Amino acid sequence: MVQVGDIVARLSHQQDIFFHVDKIQGSLKSKGSGLVILKGLNLRLLADAPISDLVLKSPVEVANYEREDHKMIYQKLHKLTNQRKTAQDDQREFFEIPGRVLQLDGDQDYLHQCIKTYRQMGIEAKGICKSEIEQPRVIRKILQENPADILVLTGHDGLISGKKDFHNMDSYRSSRYFVESVLEARRFQHNLDALVIFAGACQSNYEAILSAGANFASSPKRMLIHAFDPVFIVERIAFTPTDQIVSVKDILTHTITGTDGVGGVETRGQMRRGYPRSPY
């Protein structure tokens, strides 16, 4: 019997994605007819499925799934680290102050992983877990209390089954809240280079989020995005000098999903160089 917290896959989708069971709805759960709310294990996808469509995944299957995912993340991080080291070697007499990051995330597990990775890369970052529906109500107060150069608004999203109108906000689970959050953030800071914003999750309404004032968003082709896609975009922005424009094409090559899943507009970097470097 499927329970909250289990890791499952959907038979109807050839078990391609592993999910956490977030909630089980319906009065006939014991008979297997309940509706299950699912959150992607490594993708920012929110979905639902009948219990009868789900198969429990064994610890060995989960370990293999996560190992492949971690391998992909490591390769991306390794490439970014090497590129940054090369750039630093060319500017040894300077010290660097990368952009500060504030991330609001609807998923506590993903938030913890992202903040840990930012800090490992030398980026000052603060994470606050707020559900997607809460984010528009709290974002301005949080920005006032937590100065940042880069804002990430993410969590889970997804196209609602049966919805075909990609422009209608009612076709999405969370896109409306990401759009409202970006609008609120832009009322606080309208300058796209003074506050760089990434917003969205799996299959989000890309055009609407960019129109609201985000610098980067998901998802141009309504694709699933990886939990770490925002991290890879933020790293490039945080370590690009303020006198340089981030190459949109270049920054997207560093993500896992690529241009099908994430996109954006030309944006100024958020790193400041200082001189001289202290010997201490």
Structure, described:
With 280 residues, the chain is an alpha/beta fold. Helix 4 links the parallel strand 9 and strand 10. Helix 3 runs parallel beside helix 4 and helix 4 runs parallel beside helix 5. The mean pLDDT is 92.
Write the layout of secondary structure elements.
Blueprint (H helix, E strand, L loop, with lengths): L6 E4 L8 E7 L9 E6 L5 E5 L3 E3 L2 H31 L5 E3 L3 E5 L2 H13 L4 E5 L5 H11 L4 E5 L20 H14 L7 E4 L6 H7 L3 E2 L11 H10 L6 E2 L1 H6 L9 E2 L2 E2 L3 E3 L6
Parallel strand pairs: 7-8, 7-9, 9-10, 10-11
Antiparallel strand pairs: 1-2, 1-5, 2-3, 3-4, 6-15, 11-13, 12-14
Helix pairs in contact: 3-4, 4-5
Spatial shape: globular
Q: Please mark out the parts with pLDDT under 50 across 5 or more consecutive residues, or reply none.
A: none
Helix segment count?
A: 7
**Largest beta-sheet details:** 6 strands, mixed
Radius of gyration: 20 Å
Supply database-style keywords:
single chain; 280 residues; alpha/beta; six-stranded mixed beta sheet; five-stranded antiparallel beta sheet; 7 helices; 33% helix; globular
Short description:
The protein has helices spanning 59-89, 108-120, 135-145, 175-188, 206-212, 229-238, 248-253; strands at residues 7-10, 19-25, 35-40, 46-50, 54-56, 95-97, 101-105, 125-129, 150-154, 196-199, 216-217, 245-246, 263-264, 267-268, 272-274. With 280 residues, the protein is an alpha/beta fold.
